[in-house]
Amino acid sequence: MRIFHHDHLDWPFLEPRHKALALEFERWAGGNLHDSEGHARSVQEVDEACRQLVRRLGQAGWFRYAVAGEAYGGSGDSIDTRAVCLIRETLARHSGLADFVFAMQGLGSGAISLFGTDEQKRRYLPRVAEGSAIAAFAISEPNAGSDVAALQCRAVRNGDTYLIEGVKTWISNGGIADFYVVFARTGEAAGAKGISAFIVDADAHGLTVAERIEVMAPHPLARLEFKECQIPVCQRLGEEGQGFKIAMATLDIFRSSVAAAALGFARRAMHQALRRATCRKMFGQALADFQLTQAKLAKMATEIDAAALLTYRAAWLKDLGRPVTVEAAMAKMTATEIAQQVIDAAIQIFGALGVVSDEPVERLYREIRPLRIYEGATEVQQLIVARGMIKAFQESERLHG
């Protein structure tokens, strides 16, 4: 599968070490990841495929880029957002399920990397880095998805413990995770200010996997129930009431990498479309000889580059320590929407073959669709961008108006 193009690795957003990482990882992925891994259908098949991918990526040392702190198995003192993006883009081109596995190890443990105590980091992060523990991020609820401040799951302190009560749903890695970072209301204030974060081991008494949810792009997904789930105070992340801040800081790192995954899917679709267009004969010439096809391919290539520029700008700014909420939202919104359009165009070029089950472009169509929803739907990203622009304008007016 020769679909790797590295022109963007010379862009000024990336350093020589990033190019070296991308080339090394591409060589590894080409020899160790298989497109057929995304063909799993039953819950049991998907679970086992994910566990194997976790072990494989962990043993090869790639999860060290999803963890902060060399003392805890990470590649550096902080998470290198550009490295995460390059890895996810490569994974998405080779295997959507492998990309999911890497993303959830990072997202599920990201809050611990950013806000965990030394003891919490020592207990969880080395196992995440080596692939011996599977992480999950549990924030969504039946009536609280994009509106995090609406969550109802509660954690009531009782001396040296908390009792967690409530439901979480749409939880990726639900059912196979070894621990969950759970967000619950502790009631210091209304809305987002009354939320705290906790690390809950999968075998904690009172935590049950109530339902496994099957979706169009198969991956482990579940509804969790907490009934008098008792955990010690030392399992709280940060201070009470810091949960929303912890969640947003974690998402700011990994939201850019969602855009990178979308890029990977789009690049794979572009490659497939080019192969089909140049090989498919129609009316005595190749499909690629028609101007309508050429116009479609030109638009696909241009939009992919536009999305890539936004993606790696956001990752670069994050690594510089700059505020990145708006830029990450722009990247996530643009890359996922463009990838959907590119993949749809690829299917159109394939014609009837494009909608045959388990054809590469058909799988890409199923894999890209959820990315426009999770970690903040496109409409939420639009609100984030608009509000950020309005706030910046108002501040500028106060200073210079």
Keywords:
401 residues; alpha+beta; four-stranded mixed beta sheet; four-stranded antiparallel beta sheet
Description:
- It is a single chain.
- The protein is an alpha+beta fold and 401 residues long.
- Helix content is 52%, strand content 15%.
- It has ten helices and ten strands.
- It has helices spanning 16-32, 43-59, 81-94, 96-115, 118-130, 243-279, 291-319, 325-350, 360-371, 378-400; strands spanning 135-138, 154-158, 161-172, 179-185, 195-201, 207-212, 221-232, 236-237, 281-282, 285-286.
- The strands form three sheets. Strands 1-4-5-8 form a four-stranded mixed β-sheet. Strands 2-3-7-6 form a four-stranded antiparallel β-sheet, with no helix packed on it.
- Helix 6 runs antiparallel to helix 7.
- The longest helix has 37 residues, at 243-279.
- 50% of the residues are buried.
- The mean pLDDT is 93.
Question: Could you give a quick summary of the protein structure above?
Answer:
This protein is of the alpha+beta class.
The helical percent reads 40-55%
Biggest pleated sheet: 4 strands, mixed
Give the termini distance in whole angstroms: 56 Å
* Number of helical regions: 10
Radius of gyration: 21 Å
Order of helices and strands: HHHHHEEEEEEEEHEEHHHH
The whole-number mean of residue pLDDT values reads: 93
Which residue ranges are poorly predicted, with pLDDT under 50 across at least 5 consecutive positions?
none
Strand order of the largest sheet: 1-4-5-8
Report the β-strand fraction as a percent range.
5-15%
Q: Pairing-aware structural class of the strands and helices?
A: alpha+beta
> How many DSSP-defined strands?
10
Which overall shape is indicated by the principal axes computed on the Cα atoms?
globular
